[in-house]
Write a structure and sequence with these properties.
Blueprint: E1 3-6, E2 16-18, E3 23-25, H1 39-48, E4 52-58, H2 69-85, E5 92-96, H3 119-128, E6 135-139, H4 142-151, E7 154-158, H5 163-166, E8 178-180, H6 183-195
Parallel strand pairs: 1-4, 1-6, 4-5, 6-7, 7-8
Antiparallel strand pairs: 2-3
Bound molecules: magnesium ion and zinc ion.
The site of magnesium ion (MG) has 7 residues, from loops.
Length: 211
């Protein structure tokens, strides 16, 4: 494998619960943007394995009027400075800013980059100069898994994969190849696949998941 494509919200930084709206969404303000524990260390491990690392993320918040483009840039600075502080690095950050119901007409479109479409993955892989078949795709949502599978990536789901959910999704394209509780564990799994070194007692796995 040559590279790892990472979803952002729910993988690198936590989602935020908006009580007034009763919804969970991406952070909208800089104070809401935090890295999950051990994310910089996980990325450094991927760097040390010689893997390219890129972020591929749907960010419709600007289109929906939740935040200004400058705030997204601030998130990037916070994300990259936290990662660099641990001696880790990211090769590219790719966002789809579109949404079919955007308030801003320039962002209102059915694009080829919004996951589950694969345009963003193609763009990242092209710039990394690696084939998509040699990329891991790490995400916490069904659109991540659909895009990753369609693109031929090896998919890793972050979170608890519930088999009850499987039957309601576009099986089998949304089934992850692997499941990890966070990016640190995902990086350990990637290391064990690439080197044969395992530091985990057992890898959590859904019975219906096919590797
Ligand atoms: Mg996500
Ligand atoms: Zn797009």
């Amino acid at each position: 494998m040559k590279a790892v494509l990472l979803d952002r919200d729910g993988v690198i930084n936590p989602l935020v619960y908006y009580e007034e709206a009763g919804m969970i969404d991406a952070p909208f303000t800089p104070s809401q943007f935090k890295l999950f524990p051990r994310v910089p260390e996980a990325i450094r491990l991927l760097n040390d394995l010689g893997l390219g690392v890129a972020v591929v993320s749907n960010q419709p918040g600007i289109a929906k009027g939740h935040l200004k483009p400058e705030v997204l840039k601030t998130f990037d600075r916070l994300m990259l400075s936290g990662i660099h502080a641990a001696g880790a690095s990211i090769d590219g950050v790719y966002y789809c800013l579109h949404h079919p119901e955007a308030k801003d007409p320039s962002l209102r479109q059915r694009c080829q980059c919004r996951k589950p479409e694969i345009g963003l993955l193609e763009q990242a892989a092209a710039n990394l100069q690696v084939p998509l078949e040699e990329c891991y795709l790490v995400g916490d949502g069904i659109p991540d898994l659909l895009a990753g599978t369609r693109a031929g990536c090896r998919t890793i789901f972050i979170g608890r994969w519930k088999c009850e959910i499987c039957q309601f999704t576009e099986a089998p394209n949304s089934h992850p190849a692997l499941v990890a509780k966070d990016l640190w564990e995902a990086a350990q799994i990637i290391r064990s696949e690439m080197t044969g070194i395992t530091s985990l007692a057992s890898l959590p796995k859904c019975a219906s998941t096919q590797a």
